[in-house]
Design goal:
single chain, 35% helix, 150 residues, mainly alpha, 2 domains, binds heme C
């Protein structure tokens, strides 16, 4: 009995830390390890989880020779994406930062992939199907975990 209550408390605590219940996009890490204070959310890897999204959906336009590169020099290929995103000011939307480590909601990239009418321009990826809920959740979790270059 006592053991069960402890386990429930730990699960509740993990849920509160992650805040998954409040996230509109849901939480992809639904099997939190009770010993991990992040409930698994901190496990998103830039190289393993984020780069494949950028490569598949973004880098074609956002790289030298790409459609968007002449006026937005934002290279989203694997080797250059991190330096072009984290803490870097938007060239289009004044006062905005592409990725604000620790704050997905404030990050302009999240606005660009989730809203049909972001502050400037159109939803990304331009003229294509929106990213899936799971892909957006990975981006959010990685940013909220501090956008580590891992
Ligand atoms: C078909 C080409 C194309 C694809 C694919 C594409 N983009 Fe874009 N992107 C553009 C163009 C063109 C602009 C400028 C016009 C606009 O913002 O609507 C832009 C602008 C942006 C900006 C604003 C940059 C700034 O500094 O203000 C961000 C952020 C962005 N894209 C992110 C992405 C992400 C993330 C993806 C993949 C999920 C993506 N884009 C896929 C063409 C593309």
């Amino acid at each position: 009995m006592r053991k069960t209550r402890g386990a429930v408390r730990r699960l509740l605590a993990a849920g509160l830390f992650v805040g998954c219940g409040l996230a509109a996009t849901g939480c992809p890490n639904t099997s939190p390890d009770p010993n991990d204070p992040n409930g698994g959310a901190g496990a998103v890897s830039f190289a393993a989880d984020i780069v494949p999204i950028l490569t598949a959906h973004c880098a074609g336009c956002h790289s030298p020779g790409g459609f968007a590169f002449t006026f937005i020099t934002m290279d989203l290929r694997a080797a250059n994406a991190y330096q072009n995103l984290v803490g870097v000011a938007s060239v289009q939307a004044s006062g905005r930062v592409r990725i604000v480590p620790g704050d997905a909601t404030a990050s302009y990239l999240i606005e660009k992939v989730t809203q049909d009418q972001p502050q400037v321009g159109a939803r990304m990826p331009l003229n294509r199907d929106p990213l899936s809920e799971a892909e957006i959740a990975l981006l959010r979790d990685w940013i909220d975990a501090g956008a580590p270059n891992n």
